[in-house]
Amino acid sequence: MVGLKEELLKSIWHAFTALDLDRSGKVSNSPVLGVLSHNLCTVLNVPHDPVALEEHFRDDDEGPVSNQGYMPYLNKFILEKVQGNFDKVEFNRMCWTLCAKKNLSKSPLLISDEDAFKVWVIFNFLSEDKYPLIIVPEEIEYLLKKITEAMGAGWQQEQFDHYKIALNTSREGLSAWELIDLIGSGQFSKGMDRQTVSMAINEVFNELILDVLKQGYMLKKGHKRKNWMERWFVLKPNIISYYVSEDLKDKKGDIILDGNCCVEALPDKDGKKCLFLIKCLDKTFEISASDKKKKQEWIQAIQTTVNLLRAGSPPPHKEARQKRKELRQKLLAEQEELERQMKELQAANENKQKELETVRKQLEAAAARAAEEEKKRLQTQVELQDRFSLELEREKMVRQKMEEQVAQKSSELEQYLQRVRELEEMYKQLQEALEDEKQARQDEETVRKLQARLLEEETAKRAELEKWHLQQQQTIQMTEAEKQELENERMMKEQALQVAMQQLKQLELERKEALEQYEEVKKKLETAANNTKSWKDKVAHHEGLIRLIEPGSKNPHLITNWGPAAFTEAELEERQRSWKGKKATSE
């Protein structure tokens, strides 16, 4: 049923696409769909339900008509109800009537409209199962070969190869109307008249569409009268029908075939030749062919049909079509796989090319670096040789100078030791000067504390005097009776004030003496500081000698006693006289 549904859909697709469509691709007039659905139900022997159609294409608040497709309705209400008891030719003719007028070419063709209809039906049978429908070059070649063989002409393979090349460069295949134009143009039937081409198309149509495996005139023996009558026999996959003539208008009966049937050749008898027998479960049919060749062909065709029924296989042309389709799919898969492998190989090749290019660039860069390094190495070697020669000469000169300095420094060693001893003595004197400075600072601190104490006493006295003066002012304001007493007290307080003034003066004198002592101590401190500074200057001038006494660094010193720290005997005596003079001045 799936294959039947697919074949029906192809014809319906042609009819549907021929209807008036709006810009969105939907049918603009829903009554047209009603007519189409009614015609389909009529030819397919399916009950028509117009209410279901209107319900399916209702236009309400839920959305416009375009939201409801025709294909869901077609599958649910028509195709699923098809039983197969319909006339395929009538069904296809109805669909052809709807689409032919709009799509059929207006140019004159060498075939009739009936032949064009049959080519259109054959196209639907051989086309690919994808939309829009096309027929691929392989199926075009198969169809043209069948028509050419039916005409009794020779197949022009070279001519079709040229046509196939031109076709493959522009598209994948032909539409139904392009196929009709191709056959109707007579390009592959040159020299044949219209009747021959029409008979060939009809023969191919009968085989591919009507499943006619074989047909022709033969004699059949009657079951009742036992007389022999000429009948037109048509062999199909499960039945042999016989008619009065080949126009198929007056059907006389059927021979139902199944797996239990068999066919046997019979010897000539009763003046009839080329006899064979068809045995079925309920009846037996005796038939006479026109000659032995026809007899053998019919026996073989009927036996092949029975064998296919036993095996449950489809008719030969359908099985061949399925094999061609599977072969195309296999070739397409192999081609896609080959293309995929080619892409992978191409990508791998490109990667290898990139890797080789990278390696080449790396080798070139490495060669350039090696040449540059070799050049630098040679240059460095020359520079090292020159530098080595210069350093060798410089080393010789240094060695000579060192020998001279060793001799000179040996003589200066005793002087250096004497200077060290003198510096140690000077260091002791510096320690004494530092002790004097420390004692002077202590004395200064004592004087400062004394001065602070005297200032506090003076402040207290002043406060007391201010208090007495205040009391005196208060006493003046007393009554006249108390004036005498207050006068006496005032006199006593004045005396006490005089005494206090004298004590204040005495404190002033003591403070001045303290200031003088402070100035004296300050001078001593400055003198001690100057002495300390002079000793520090002396030590700074003898920095080289002090380093010999202090803990030395672990690193070797470049400055020795023969360097900047060294001085002569005259300089030493001059420094000693200067130091003694400064010491005497400070004392």
Automatic annotation (TrEMBL):
SUPFAM superfamilies: PH domain-like. CDD domains: PH_SWAP-70. Residues 211-307 form the PH domain. One of its GO terms (molecular function) is DNA binding. GO terms for cellular component: cytoplasm; lamellipodium; nucleus; plasma membrane. Keywords: Cell membrane, Cell projection, Coiled coil, Cytoplasm, DNA-binding, Membrane, Nucleus, Phosphoprotein. It is found in: Cell membrane; Cell projection, Lamellipodium; Cytoplasm; Nucleus. Residues 317-538 form a coiled coil. The keyword Lipid metabolism does not apply. The keyword Chloroplast does not apply. Pfam families: EF-hand_SWAP70_N (PF25530), PH (PF00169). InterPro entries: EF-hand_SWAP70_N, PH-like_dom_sf, PH_domain, PH_SWAP70. It comes from the Eukaryota. The SWAP complex consists of NPM1, NCL, PARP1 and SWAP70. Phosphatidylinositol 3,4,5-trisphosphate-dependent guanine nucleotide exchange factor (GEF) which, independently of RAS, transduces signals from tyrosine kinase receptors to RAC. It also mediates signaling of membrane ruffling. Regulates the actin cytoskeleton as an effector or adapter protein in response to agonist stimulated phosphatidylinositol (3,4)-bisphosphate production and cell protrusion. This is Switch-associated protein 70. It comes from Struthidea cinerea.
